[in-house]
Amino acid sequence: xxxxxxxxxxxxxxxxxxxxxxxxxxxxxxxxxxxxxxxxxxxxxxxxxxxxxxxxxxxxxxxxxxxxxxxxxxxxxxxxxxxxxxxxxxxxxxxxxxxxxxxxxxxxxxxxxxxxxxxxxxxxxxxxxxxxxxxxxxxxxxxxxxxxxxxxxxxxxxxxxxxxxxxxxxxxxxxxxxxxxxxxxxxxxxxxxxxxxxxxxxxxxxxxxxxxxxxxxxxxxxxxxxxxxxxxxxxxxxxxxxxxxxxxxxxxxxxxxxxxxxxxxxxxxxxxxxxxxxxxxxxxxxxxxxxxxxxxxxxxxxxxxxxxxxxxxxxxxxxxxxxxxxxxxxxxxxxxxxxxxxxxxxxxxxxxxxxxxxxxxxxxxxxxxxxxxxxxxxxxxxxxxxxxxxxxxxxxxxxxxxxxxxxxxxxxxxxxxxxxxxxxxxxxxxxxxxxxxxxxxxxxxxxxxxxxxxxxxxxxxxxxxxxxxxxxxxxxxxxxxxxxxxxxxxxxxxxxxxxxxxxxxxxxxxxxxxxxxxxxxxxxxxxxxxxxxxxxxxxxxxxxxxxxxxxx
Length: 552
Description:
The protein has 552 residues and is of the alpha+beta class. It is built from 15 helices and 23 strands.
């Protein structure tokens, strides 16, 4: 039974609503204390919050709820008096819907059902992510425990089969639902990449692409174009009602129409801004692809698969566990990491995250660091429109913030560098994110099936070949998402994404088309809050790129 929490709702109104909600099949709870703690105690699916948005007394609570990992998924409907501008402001700051007082119960219930329908896929995704993370922790613990085991004449480690299966069951879900820490899109993709990441059969490729294509269809339901379509339909419906209404209801309908039309105008303007940013700068955002290998810290020997069977898969023991070794072996164990970066000058300098350039930063790789040393085997930057990748050189890494500076050798005809704005960002203003949030998975999901089959045949059943083939066909293109700034702090920007999470290292643009931050993490939840490092924190690196000096 879905639980609905009533916050600050007037006694007369709550007395009428609670029995109606209960009879409709909801568990309705009234609370006088409107705090994050109360939400954590009751764990509701949806909150009805009565407020006077003209005073913006709800903004602090909205920001706290949406910035908290545990409460961000809860849907919030404001019950409010006031004008359309105030209600639009409340929506910008985190409310999922606003209903004008007075209202008809039938309309409230319809809006509640709509919010819960939109929330249901997110709940399923979060449940699957929790399962994937549990298996990930089990794999890490098992690998740490068995790393001491030795066989006669050589060192040998057995990684639990659950580790090898994580990528197949979790990449499309968990990469979009990274936990808040230094594990954002690229590092979580790394953790979920199995030891079989080199073995990508055609059937696996098609299966993964189909799963991501289905996920993309869910994303579309929350897109700006979908919102505009729904708002225009609502506006047309309100106009029809106004033409046949009289009395007190006419004023309420007129206010709702003004509010709806205001939201339509606002979304249309933001959509136009986003299109201009995409036109000018989407080709300036590159896919960063790193291959990570491992060496034994004592001997320097590479970590290898113990053997490969006739089907090209790593050999396993009688329990189905993949075997790896540092003596002999058939093929190196590689992990494949994807992130985003963006061109900041004509000298080929790229700004991104520290954890994209060093994926093991803050122990992101689930391998015992006291035994194995991770190393970059290769790292390439793929810009849209280019048929080949460019070797990446690390120029500088920040230990204080998740920032990294790299460089590539640009061709004579190269992409346009982004424009940077180091002035303070403004809360509530629109933002646009460009990046590769699910790496190759997101790119594959946008390709038609016949082309996908040809790519699979040409890729040679390995991830590196797949990326090269996508580049050759000029199919590497970033995803674009829109949102609004919530919290603006000295060390981080917090903002929502209306479609999907931004890629690690991707640029965050403001409404004027200038970069104000570097995306680095998201809160759990499909439509939760993203975090970026303010571009002002990259000042030393930007100066280093102009002077040609590396900085760490």
